Amino acid sequence: MRLFFVKDFLDLVFPRNCLLCGTSLYDYENNLCTICKGSLPVTSYHLRPMDNDLGDKVKGLSTVGMVMSYLKFTKGGKSQKLLHQLKYRNKPQLAHELGSLYGKILNDHGFGTQWDIIVPVPLHPLKQSRRGYNQSEQFGLGLSVSLSVKLENSLVRGKFTETQTQKSRLERMYNVDDVFELAPRNSITNKSILLVDDVMTTGATLCACANVLLANGANNVDLVTIAAGG
């Protein structure tokens, strides 16, 4: 009885609300209410992972395999609101839940045995210190739980880069050139890797990371993001 009283008190002082619509969450709901979760703009890239418009974006930039994204990005849409929560509202648990949800979809479609490790795109240590977490890592940890695949921080970011938001495709490639390195004492030789990030625009950052992994002996690299635009 006392535990229920404490929980009711905490819910009153610190209400748990859906991060999209703001309604109160039930005990069995985490960050999103059931209605918002069911109305997320989920893509079908997992049905054609080797032949879709995301794969077309990275052609000529890297020799990656499958390219997929959980959500379709639209300006002002639900996916952008979720990404805003991750980057500016200190919601690492949301990224973890999104990873878990997409991991279940991938697992249901036979991807559970595709990869040896999951590798997140790293943040610069200064940026991660300011934010308190790497949203791509949290997304990867959610995928890791659903897919039963270990996450490893196999990459490090050596340079602090300018924001990619207003840059062209070519400028983005130059901006991340020689930015990423293999982490010390990290072997990825002959491993099949799932490289994950929060969002794909031109694919420049993901391809820069994939190229480092492939150059250091990875067998193949596939890409997955939380959201991506067409």
Automatic annotation (TrEMBL):
Domain Phosphoribosyltransferase: 89-228
Domain Double zinc ribbon: 9-42
Record-stated family: Belongs to the ComF/GntX family.
Name listed for the protein in its UniProt record: ComF family protein
Organism expressing this protein natively: Algoriphagus chordae
